[in-house]
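Quick illustration for those who missed Monday's session on complexes.
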Amino acid sequence: MDTVKQLKWRYATKKFDAQKKLSKEKLEVLKQAFNLTATSYGLQTIKMVVLENKAVREPLVEHAFNQKQVLDASHLLIICIQNNILDEDVVKYYDNIKGIRNTAETILKPYREGLIQMMEKMSVDERQRWSTNQAYIALGNLMTVCAMESIDSCPMEGFVPAKFDDILKLTDKGLKSVLLLPVGYRAEDDMFSEFKKVRKPIEEAVVEI
Ligand SMILES: Cc1cc2nc3c(=O)[nH]c(=O)nc-3n(C[C@H](O)[C@H](O)[C@H](O)COP(=O)(O)O)c2cc1C
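Prediction with flavin mononucleotide bound:
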């Protein structure tokens, strides 16, 4: 697989083929890619909502500045953050390490207490911003995996999160939407697929010291 070739193949898809669906296997790869995304401390205070139902997606379009990708893509991935990070999230995380790696409590205790203290020093806003940083890492990871799997995608900040949260009842799940990633297959007549990539010369983008 030619990595650069696939990265050049990828573009922010403006028009999806509404008839083409991702296979279960492809969707599974994207779920795995999301879950395998690195997060700060490994705490995973983000979640990915997978939305396929078009009737549920229809009313979302107007709250995404009428960007039709939200409806036409095979699936709409919504990257969310937790509304808050509680002590119990940190405790659960270290319990998971204990269960999976059989790590001794004496080793884990100082790390767990240190992380709880760090979170307690942050305001809810700061915790949300911290989680949002993780959401962007997941977005980048998913976009690259999509490119490698020849899946089209469009990263999107252009929507009204409060409306999405309300319509999809994400608040009831303790979540806030922060990013969208419609995924599927480009429409044959999406003219953007023919456009040349606009990037700075590599010597300008990359600083070698
Ligand atoms: C965080 C982020 C948010 C974006 N939001 C939107 C959006 O709401 N709608 C859209 O059509 N494109 C959106 N884009 C796509 C960018 O405009 C696009 O990636 C950029 O112009 C480079 O083009 P390329 O991805 O086709 O190479 C977004 C990209 C990123 C990374």
